[in-house]
Structure formats: C-alpha cells, structure tokens
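hey
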C-alpha cells in the first residue's frame, strides 16, 4: 500500500521479482547496476532476459575486435538463449495466468531445458509435440524463422559461418513473435 504514495526501491540479484512484475504488467522502472572495467559503475534500463540476450548478440555481431571464430560460436548461443528466454516468459504467463501453481510451472520448465521442448510448450502447450516444432515455426512465422531456430540451435554447439548480424535481426523478429503469443 505504501508504494501508491511513495517511491519504493528494491535491490535484488534474484530475477523472480522483475519476472513477476513483467508478467503481471505492473508499471515499474527497472534498472540494472553493473561494474565495468576499472570498477566503473554503469546503470542501465533493464530489459527482459530475451531482449537482453539479443542486445548482447547484436553487440558481439558488430564487434570487429572479436575473432570471427569466437563470434560464430557465441552469437548463435546468445540467440538461442534469447529464444529460450522468450519461451520461458510465454510458458510462465500462460500457465500461471490460468491458475497453475508457480512451483509446477517452474518444475515443468526445469524438466525441459532444451530449446525444442520449450518451443513445443509455446506452440502447442504440449511437450510431446517437439517433433512438430520446425514445421509449426515455418507455418506460423515463415521459413526464415525456421532457419533462425535451426541455426541458433546448431550454431550454439558448432558455430555458424553465415551473416551473424542478419541472423540476429531475424531472431529479434522471431522472439517478438513468440512473446506476442502469451
């Protein structure tokens, strides 16, 4: 009740509070404080985990000092992380929103850490339809988004020799499309 008439500042390392604020649509300004090189403190507006991973992927894809071999491995991993985070967000919003216990939803997510099962939960609300995921992505979002899914998934383990900046742009559209499903 005090927050209605006063500014409330909460400091935490735990992402559950910001996640709940985002999921419930509570108006709040969230900031991240981090220490950079030389103990320089940086305060930035906080974004959701999916867009944070995308921001990192874009930054690395644009970095000319990063060896191409490293970028080819790290950027797809960050893009996969962005897709996984979007899936986590959608599953939580849907399931908790319809009254499923929070602990059950978290158990479901922790039991299904891989990308394809999480996409199966998002696209079908059914973990057993993982085999249908690639075709469903193409049908719903287009062939280019199916390629994003495949390249991010494979590239996180083996690297990707393609246009990483273009892949990141395409992934951002895919993530936004996934988030719109919640």
């Amino acid at each position: 009740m005090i927050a209605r008439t006063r500014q409330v500042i909460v400091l935490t390392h735990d992402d559950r509070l910001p996640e709940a604020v985002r999921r419930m649509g509570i108006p709040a300004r969230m900031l991240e404080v981090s220490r950079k090189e030389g103990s320089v403190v940086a305060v930035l507006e906080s974004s959701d985990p999916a867009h944070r991973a995308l921001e990192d992927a874009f930054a690395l894809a644009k970095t000319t000092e990063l060896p191409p071999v490293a970028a080819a491995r790290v950027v797809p991993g960050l893009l996969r992380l962005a897709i996984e985070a979007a899936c986590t967000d959608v599953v939580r919003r849907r399931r908790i929103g319809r009254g499923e216990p929070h602990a059950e939803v978290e158990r479901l997510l922790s039991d299904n850490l891989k990308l394809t099962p999480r996409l199966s939960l998002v696209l079908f609300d059914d973990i057993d339809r993982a085999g249908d995921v690639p075709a469903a992505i193409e049908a719903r979002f287009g062939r280019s988004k199916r390629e994003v899914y495949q390249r991010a998934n494979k590239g996180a383990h083996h690297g990707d020799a393609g246009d990483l900046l273009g892949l990141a742009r395409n992934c951002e559209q895919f993530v936004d499309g996934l988030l719109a499903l919640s």
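The chain has a mean pLDDT of 91. The chain has two domains: 2-45, 49-179.
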